[in-house]
Design a protein that fits this description.
heterodimer; A: mainly beta; five-stranded antiparallel β-sheet; 1 helix; about 5% helix; B: about 1600 residues; alpha+beta; seven-stranded antiparallel β-sheet; 49 helices; about 40% helix; elongated; disordered N terminus
Chain lengths: ~200, ~1600
């Protein structure tokens, strides 16, 4: 089969969870993990990570900078189920309980090159005012049973969320053999490495 | 010099002249020698001065001096140039075409350059100042003025740039030298400035002056410039000189010794002032001017600007750009190299009409920089009423305002009315004809055509004249021919017109005559009409001549025409004739041939080959006869034309006639007139089908005219769709009748009030009116003739004269709906609304028509206002615009199919993807579907396809017994359908599935938790904390482990000494009580020989196998071993699918096998015994405990002591008791016997058990009952939330059924009752055994995730599979039928968890029956697996346990006590007498014995094969003797149900196989399938013995019970021959 060419393609992504904008919160950390389809398998790198706690910068931007590296390689036979990175940000509330500050997900970029993505973060809402109060009081905010559900569409209709902050990610994407398998994702060759592209408007 | 060139040069120099050297270099080319000399020192002086000055500043103790020095310098620099003559601009005056402004600018430049040049001159001064005396310097300044005068002429261009720079440098110097002055005090410089009162000249000042001068003319300018300055100059000069001399001296002094001070220079921080920076920037940057660029600069040379707008082309509105910005841009563009291409023909920057795209090219992105609030802000918009319901408003988004349509109804004339008298009819006709005549006369078409004819004739005449034509003959001929044909056409038209005119005139005269005769006849006159025919005399002769000439011309033309025609015909004739001739010749030749050749075939000749083609001889066309033609022409002329000399008749209709007054009229006529008077008419104005107004009612005049003269102003919102006037007639005071409707056309948008012509719109009605007076009526036949012939039928008709126009608003804007309003002002733009009005409403649907109109009206396709229309048209005309008369969804699907469907279906990859997405079990978790078809093996699909194929085929191979196969199939199908239902349900999510949310605590919990806060801390009493539960979805292989903690076991069977063949068994039989007494003997040391290595009674170890993973504990010793070990077994979900549903359907069991480890000395030689140990380890199976995984999964943990399932016979082992240890427990254990093992099993991490499907099943129960059940359950749950309370269950068809309906006495098989008719206890046990023999199949496995499905007993017996509930229900029903008091116990047991048991009441005590095993326990049996009791269910009531305890040991089962048991039906809710769902009677078929025997043989064969398979590396020998012995023994076991047979059996075996050492055991189980049997045999590990001379024995016995319940016995043994 060697002559027939490759039977899988590889997607190598490294980059970082750069920073976040959470205007109201401070001392946050984030977790990331990947959600991918059945035809995908990680071959190298870390599939999940948890970052350090960062504090707001003291300047006007008030950015929360993690610069937390991501490095993972996938192999796949099928672009269906393209990996998504799922981020969940946590931080202490007024009572010092660790509560979730945002969930968000974005597909890894398709085309090779350097990509910057700003993803909006959101948290599930309490079902009632009373619930909201008690959850605030007890420090047990509503959470997703699994952060990975934010990468799926199924069942999301039963949840109500509130958007809350942004996280900026930087990806450097390298693909291998995609073109050989007939998937042309790259930019037309003249473009090469493009600068930081604006984040795509991602519907929540 | 051309000013343009000059400009360019300025710019280029500006860039390259970075240092003045370069600048000078470039100047050299143009400037004179004298100027060069003067300029040369300049560049050197500038920088040098800067450098030399800096150190000065650094250590200057009093820089005041220096300052005051430099400052005046700058003053002088200014003054010098003023004395210079300004630039002579005379050279430029020649350019007359320059605009005034341009000239002004040049002046300005000149002025500036003047100032600069002086500055330049001043710059070198400081340096000589230091070295020379002030006197010298002064001299120099004076000198400087002189050469400057001449130099200026050529210099000014250069200077204009350097000017600013020099000036800046000057000011920089000022700042640099500024000393640290204490704040608040003026610096020396300021002070000096203040006192000298010399303001820095503003550049504007100089700008203004030349402007003023300009008006005076150029010559005066110079003088004035000179004259202005001198007065000030003198004063300054003196002051300045004084200062300079003083400072200079000092500076010089300091300069001498500052060399030493240099090294420790203390300088102010380097500061680059803004001016310097600006200067630097100025060098680098180009700042375009803001002034307007004259047009000629923007255009190529000698090109006049061209204004497309004036030429009538459409130009869109330019974007609004500020004038200054535009100027800057233009200036910038001009300096760029190819700048001119940016300018259009009109000299303006090329611009798109609207540079803004209508929609953003990329979606708006929310970046954090933006203010979200502003984006998300909601705007309040007042609700707008939707008014565009008409399709006329295509694409117009404008909101309609108030628009006004003025309808002027001036009057109404009836052309026929029922009240018309005969005379009126004629009068109306006459009037009509006269109108027609007038119209024709006005147009005078005949005259026009005659003129045209004349012109054409002339043209032909000139065209024929060869001298005048320059063109080739061909084209001339062509045009002449065209002319001629046109002449022909025109002539015909003219003739027709003339004829019509004549006819009309004749008719008028005829009608008038008729009228006159009528008047005479009826002797009164009704109408004032009077026709006068005026005769106009004509010149007879001229007329005649003209007439004749006309006729002659016509004749000649006709002749010519005919000639041509004739010529053509002749041509045709000739050709035809030739043909005919040729044919004739050929014919003749043929005939000849035939004659020669064949004489005997006359009939052939008859059939000539081409008889039909026999051409007729062509007739030559006749030449035209001139006389005939002339005749024709004359005739026609006579018909249509006025005869020559005949006077011109001009009819004139007047109303001058008098109407006969009423008195002189006959009665009928008077009646008619009165009738007319009674009638009145009014009009309703209907706009868009709504009446908007109506006119006054006006009486009908005698002349049948009604005058209204009313104007209606319609305020409208909508585009008018229809405008109608309804004519109503009122007769007297009676009814009003609608006479007719008049449809008015909607006015064009150009028609506004005041300009609208009065139009007459005709109307008619189909009314039938007959009148009893002179009136002719309407729709009625009448005649003018006396005899009534020549009848006429006239309908009421008339004309409304009106005008409709758009009103004009206050400010002169027409109040027309908006889209047309926009168009005003564009000359060529035709209004869109016009398109509609011109083609009618239907045109909008008929695109072709619209396109045609667009083509005809020559729309400007470039006008954006027409864009949508043009697009529409282009679509319409591009061909494929037909509208199909069918509708199709996804009409583009065809285009997007990249392969055909068959090809797609053939693709294996696609199929695999489809199956996976459908969640077909085989493919649900298929990973990494290969990228290519060729990499997918065909066998991937084999299983699936096989399953599909087998769905309807009953496979008997696996099942042996056809009935069971059918049942299995049925179960499979039920399972599939249930699973499918479940799969669908799985995709419905609840909030709790996705979000973890704390529940709102209620008051009690809140209070409790508050109380807890106050509670004392008790660190020595640790509390168990719940483990965190993990949802199953994010798990993978290896994440889950099953932990089995094996703590201890009791009463393990111990080995028996191997008796020799001849040794008699020590006990023939033993009762339970006897064991106690006999046991000590077994411990006697005499037996030690049997335990060669000094082994103890038994060395048990536990082996746990799960999913073919095997772990075992260490070996313990003795019959009551304690291991206390934890074994870890990995768990793998099927297909790696860790979803809840998948985990629920895991059917694997955890096998806990207890083995005895036996060591045998295998040393051959005793001599070696000293040096080594050779032992062989054998393990003998003692028993097992089987726990299904599903139980572990649902229970989360299993903790307790379990009875070990020990075969009834264990060869070589016996149940011994050590009295010493266990004496104390004997009494407790009196009822139960057997071995026990204490286990703790759990999973790590703990999994959340799946919930049952949230489906509300429908029910046939009474609604009240259902409500009661809910209430009951709620009440129970409130008190004891953990106790099981069951009131309704789901039956197999998915309906909710009240639980007591399941309980009803049912007859057990007769066979069982007959077995021991006298012993009710034995019968009960037998029945329990029968029930336990029905295979167990947990619901959770078959119906994953679905709550329990309860099948009725007959269904259960038919299916032969069920879980605890079914077993318990059946057993309970049997007991009831046996006359016992029996209840269903809902509670929890180990290991099953929530389960159902049966409780019976014997005479004095209660018995608890395990329906699945058939065992029974006393109420106080500690080893009873039932651990808690939730409720009891009888055939007619439910009792919930409300006692404090729920352990059967501690509760009272007396249900009659309401304090202990809460009953469902009580006095408040009486038992309604629910009918049972069970059948009346169970019918049992006897099982076919032969079939059972056959099955038995097959099982034996299969098992033997399996054992051989499991020992692939060893020879497996079967001992026939042993096998037959075992086979005989098995039926005995069945009969005694595994009790009390051991020793007989052993004796028998020993008899036969005395010299064998063997171990073996019978296995007993209900028969369901083959697989469990094989598993059970495998788990015993019999096959694992690898002693070379081992032999095996295997026997199977099946005992059939009624209804295909089979009891299977398998006896396996291994034998090793003793030597």
């Amino acid at each position: 089969m060697a002559a027939a060419g490759p039977s899988v393609f590889l997607l190598m992504v490294n980059g970082q969870v750069e920073s976040a904008q959470f205007p109201e919160y401070d001392d946050l950390y984030c977790k990331y993990c990947f959600v991918y389809g059945q035809d995908w398998a990680p071959t190298a790198g870390l599939e999940e990570g948890i970052s350090q706690i960062t504090s707001k910068s003291q300047d006007v931007r008030q950015a929360l900078v993690w610069n937390f590296p991501i490095d993972v390689t996938f192999k796949s036979t099928n672009p269906y189920g393209w990996p998504q990175i799922v981020l969940s940000v946590y931080g202490p509330d007024v009572f010092g309980n660790d509560v979730v500050r945002g969930y968000g997900a974005v597909h890894l970029p398709f085309s090779p090159g350097r990509h910057k993505r700003t993803i909006p973060m959101f948290v599930p809402e309490s079902t009632s005012k009373l619930q909201k109060f008690t959850s605030w009081f007890m420090g047990r905010r509503p959470e997703y049973t699994d952060p990975k559900v934010v990468a799926q569409g199924e069942g999301r209709e039963v949840t109500r969320v509130r958007s809350q902050g942004f996280v900026t990610l930087l990806f450097n994407v390298v693909t291998k053999d995609m073109r050989k398998l007939g998937y042309d994702t790259g930019p037309s060759d003249t473009q090469g490495v493009s600068g930081p592209s604006p984040p795509p408007g991602r519907p929540l | 010099m051309n000013p343009k060139e000059e400009k360019v040069k300025i710019i280029t120099e500006e860039f390259d002249e970075n240092d003045e050297d370069a600048g000078v270099g470039s100047q050299k080319k143009t400037s004179k020698m004298a100027r060069q000399k003067r300029k040369k020192p300049l560049p050197a002086a500038g920088p040098e001065e800067m450098v030399s000055e800096n150190p000065h500043l650094g250590n200057q103790p009093e820089p005041l001096q220096e300052d005051s020095d430099t400052r005046p310098l700058s003053m002088t620099t200014r003054r010098g140039p003023r004395s210079l003559p300004p630039i002579p601009s005379a050279s430029r005056t020649g350019f007359a075409e320059f605009s005034m402004r341009e000239r002004m600018r040049e002046k300005l430049q000149a002025a500036r350059s003047k100032a600069e040049s002086t500055l330049l001159q001043e710059i070198p001064t400081p340096r000589p100042r230091r070295l020379q005396s002030p006197g010298e310097k002064e001299l120099e300044t004076e000198f400087g003025t002189e050469p400057g005068e001449e130099a200026q002429k050529t210099q000014q261009e250069d200077d204009s740039q350097s000017h600013s720079r020099v000036k800046f440098r000057d000011s920089v110097r000022k700042i640099k030298t500024k000393p640290p002055v204490p704040p608040g005090f003026p610096s020396a410089e300021e002070a000096y400035n203040f006192f000298t009162f010399n303001f820095d000249p503003e550049p504007e000042e100089s700008e203004e002056k030349p402007k003023a001068k300009n008006r005076d003319g150029t010559t005066q300018e110079e003088e004035e410039g000179e004259e202005e300055e001198p007065p000030v100059q003198g004063i300054h000069k003196t002051d300045e000189q004084l200062l300079i001399s003083a400072t200079e001296a000092e500076a010089f002094l300091w300069g001498l010794d500052h060399a030493a001070a240099d090294f420790v220079a203390v300088r102010p921080a380097d500061y680059e002032s803004a001016h310097v920076r600006l200067q630097m920037e100025k060098e680098l940057l180009f700042v375009p001017s803001r002034l307007t660029v004259p047009t000629y600069k923007k255009l190529p040379e000698n090109v006049q600007p061209r204004y497309l707008e004036d030429e009538g082309l459409y130009i869109g509105t330019r974007p609004d750009v500020p004038r200054t910005c535009q100027n800057i841009m233009e200036n910038r563009l001009l300096t760029q190299e190819p700048g001119r291409r940016w300018f259009g023909d009109d000299g303006r920057i090329v611009a798109l009409p609207n540079p803004i795209k209508p929609f953003p090219s990329r979606p708006p992105v929310l970046t954090q920089e933006q203010d979200f609030r502003a984006e998300l802000e909601t705007l309040y918009k007042k609700a707008v009423k939707y008014v565009h319901r008409s399709q006329h408003m295509i694409g117009s988004g404008d909101s309609p305002g108030n628009f006004q349509l003025d309808i002027d109804i001036s009057g109404l004339i009836f052309t026929h009315h029922p009240c018309f008298s005969r005379e009126h009819v004629l009068a109306a006709k006459l009037a009509q004809l006269y109108d027609q005549y007038l119209a024709r006369h006005q147009r005078n078409k005949a005259k026009f055509l005659t003129d045209k004819l004349q012109a054409l004739r002339n043209a032909v005449q000139t065209g024929l004249n060869p001298e005048k034509t320059h063109k080739s003959l061909d084209t001339t001929q062509k045009t002449i021919n065209e002319y001629k044909s046109e002449i022909r056409q025109t002539r015909k038209l003219r003739d027709a017109e003339q004829e019509k005119d004549r006819m009309l005139l004749k008719t008028i005269i005829k009608v008038w005559k008729e009228m006159k005769s009528l008047r005479e006849f009826q002797r009164f006159t009704n109408t004032p009409l009077k026709l006068v025919l005026r005769k106009e005399k004509v010149d007879q002769k001229a007329d005649e001549e003209a007439y004749e000439a006309e006729i002659q011309a016509e004749i000649s033309e006709l002749l010519e025409e005919h000639m041509e025609e004739h010529e053509q015909k002749m041509e045709a004739y000739r050709a035809a004739y030739q043909q005919w001739k040729a044919w004739k010749k050929a014919q003749r030749a043929k005939k000849k041939k035939k004659k020669q050749a064949v004489e005997e075939h006359p009939e052939e000749e008859m059939g000539e080959p081409y008889p039909e083609e026999d051409p007729v001889k062509p007739v030559p066309p006749e030449p035209t006869d001139r006389a005939l033609m002339e005749h024709q022409v004359r005739e026609r002329a006579a018909r249509s034309r006025r005869r020559p000399g005949e006077p011109l008749l001009v009819p004139e209709l007047s109303l001058a006639g008098s109407v006969t007054p009423n008195e002189q009229c006959p009665r009928v006529e008077v009646l008619r007139r009165e009738d007319v008077k009674r009638r009145s008419i009014y009009l309703k104005v209907i706009f868009n089908d709504k009446e908007v107004s109506r006119t006054d009612s006006r009486p009908l005049g005698a002349d049948f005219r009604v005058h209204f003269g009313q104007i209606f102003n319609l305020q409208i919102f909508n585009w008018p769709e229809s405008l109608t006037l309804q004519v109503y007639e009122t007769v007297g005071h009676s009814g009003t009748t609608l006479l007719a409707e008049v449809f008015l056309p909607i006015p064009e948008t150009t028609i506004v009030t005041g300009r609208a012509p009065i139009e007459e719109v005709e109307f008619s009605s189909n009314q039938h009116v007959t009148l009893d007076h002179e009136g002719v009526g309407s729709g009625m036949p009448f005649s003018f003739e006396a005899d009534g012939s020549n009848q006429l039928i006239l309908m009421t008709s008339g004309k409304v004269s009106n005008s409709v126009a758009w009103a004009i608003g206050e400010n002169g804007i027409p109040l027309i709906p908006p889209l047309s309003q926009q168009n005003i002002g564009f000359r060529s733009a035709l209004k869109r609304a016009d398109a509609i009005s011109s083609i009618g409403t239907s045109g909008l649907t008929d695109l072709k028509k619209l396109a045609k109109w667009a083509a005809e009206s020559k729309l400007d396709p470039n006008d954006p206002n027409n864009a949508p229309l043009m697009q529409l048209i282009s679509v319409a005309t591009s061909g494929e615009s037909y509208v199909p008369d069918f509708f199709r969804l996804e009409q583009l699907q065809q285009e997007f199919n990249f392969v055909s469907d068959e090809e797609l279906n053939r693709s294996k990859r696609f199929r695999l993807l489809c199956l996976r997405s459908q969640e077909v079990p085989e493919f649900r978790n298929y990973k990494q579907i290969p990228a290519y078809d060729r990499e997918i093996m065909e066998k991937v699909f084999q299983d699936y396809e096989k399953r599909l194929r087998d769905r309807n085929v009953i496979e008997t191979k696996d099942h042996i017994d056809p009935h069971r196969a059918m049942v299995a199939k049925y179960l499979q199908q039920v399972r599939e359908s249930v699973i499918n239902r479940f799969l669908i349900a799985k995709h419905h999510f609840l909030l709790s599935d996705l979000i973890v949310e704390e529940e709102v605590p209620n008051i009690s919990i809140l209070g409790l938790s508050l109380f807890k806060l106050a509670e004392q801390k008790r660190p020595l009493r640790p509390r168990r904390k719940g483990r965190k539960k993990v949802t199953a979805q994010n798990l993978s292989d290896g994440d889950i482990k099953v932990l089995v903690n094996i703590i201890r076991a009791y009463d393990i069977p111990v080995r028996k000494p191997t008796a020799s063949k001849f040794q008699q068994p020590s006990r023939s039989s033993r009762t339970f009580s006897e064991k106690h007494a006999a046991s000590p003997t077994t411990h006697s040391p005499t037996h030690s020989a049997d335990y060669p290595l000094g082994q103890v009674l038994v060395r048990p170890f536990v082996e746990v196998s799960f999913q073919r993973t095997i772990c075992h504990t260490t070996t313990a010793e003795g019959p009551n071993p304690s291991w206390n070990e934890e074994l870890e077994l990995p768990f793998r979900a099927p297909n790696g699918d860790y979803s809840t549903s998948s985990l629920q359907s895991v059917k694997d069991d955890v096998f806990i096998n207890i083995f005895d480890e036996v060591l045998y000395d295998v040393l051959e030689d005793d001599r070696e015994r000293g040096s080594g140990i050779h032992t062989r380890i054998e393990r003998h199976w003692l028993g097992c405990v089987k726990i299904p995984f599903s139980t572990i999964y649902f229970q989360a943990k299993i903790d307790g002591t379990f009875k070990i399932d020990i075969p009834p016979v264990l060869l070589g082992y016996s149940k011994e008791r050590s009295m010493i240890i266990e004496r104390g427990f004997d009494s407790v254990r009196s009822l139960s016997e057997g071995s026990y093992i204490t286990l703790f099993i759990t999973m790590e991490p703990q999994l959340v058990p799946g919930e049952s499907v949230r489906e509300k099943f429908d029910s046939q129960e009474d609604e009240k009952l259902l409500q009661a059940t809910e209430k009951f359950q709620a009440e129970c749950a409130l008190k004891f939330p953990h106790r099981q309370c069951l009131t309704t269950v789901t039956d197999i068809s998915g309906k909710t059924v009240f639980i007591t309906r399941y309980l009803k006495p049912l007859n057990p098989p007769q066979e069982l009752l007959e077995a021991c008719p006298n012993n009710p206890q034995a019968t009960a046990e037998l029945v329990a055994r029968y029930v336990s023999l029905i295979p167990f199949l947990p619901d959770t496995v078959s119906f994953a995730g679905i709550c329990d499905l309860w099948s009725t007993s007959d269904q259960f017996l038919d299916l032969l599979a069920g879980d605890e509930e079914e077993h318990a229900v059946l057993l309970c029903n049997y007991f009831l039928s046996l006359g016992k008091k029996a209840w269903l116990v809902m509670g929890s047991a180990i290991p099953e968890g929530p389960t159902a048991y049966v409780l019976t009441r014997e005479q004095s005590h209660y018995l608890i029956w395990n329906p699945c095993s058939g065992h029974f326990y006393g109420q106080f049996d500690t080893f009873c697996p039932l651990k808690s009791v939730g409720c009891l269910i009888g055939p007619d009531n439910i009792w919930f346990n409300i006692q404090r305890h729920d352990s059967p040991l501690r509760i009272n089962f007396d249900v009659t006590k309401p304090k202990l048991w809460k009953s469902f039906f009580s006095r408040s809710l009486l038992y309604p007498g629910l009918s049972s769902v069970q059948p009346e009677e169970l019918i049992y078929q006897r099982t076919d014995k032969a079939a059972a025997a056959e099955l038995q043989d097959r099982i034996e064969k299969i098992l033997k094969e399996k054992i051989m398979d499991w020992r692939p590396r060893h020879l497996t020998r079967w001992n026939r003797y042993c096998t037959s012995a075992l086979r005989h023994f098995l039926p005995l076991l069945e009969r005694s149900r595994g009790e009390d047979v051991e020793d007989d059996h052993r004796g028998e075996l020993l008899k036969q196989l005395g010299d064998y050492r063997f171990s073996g055991f019978p296995l007993h189980m209900p028969y369901s399938e083959l697989k469990p049997l094989i598993e059970a045999v495998y788990s015993t590990g019999v096959h694992n013995i690898d002693v070379p001379n081992v032999e095996f024995a295997l026997a199977v016995y099946i005992h059939p019970y009624p209804k295909n319940v089979l009891s299977v016995w398998i006896y396996v043994a291994s034998l090793i021959r003793n030597r």
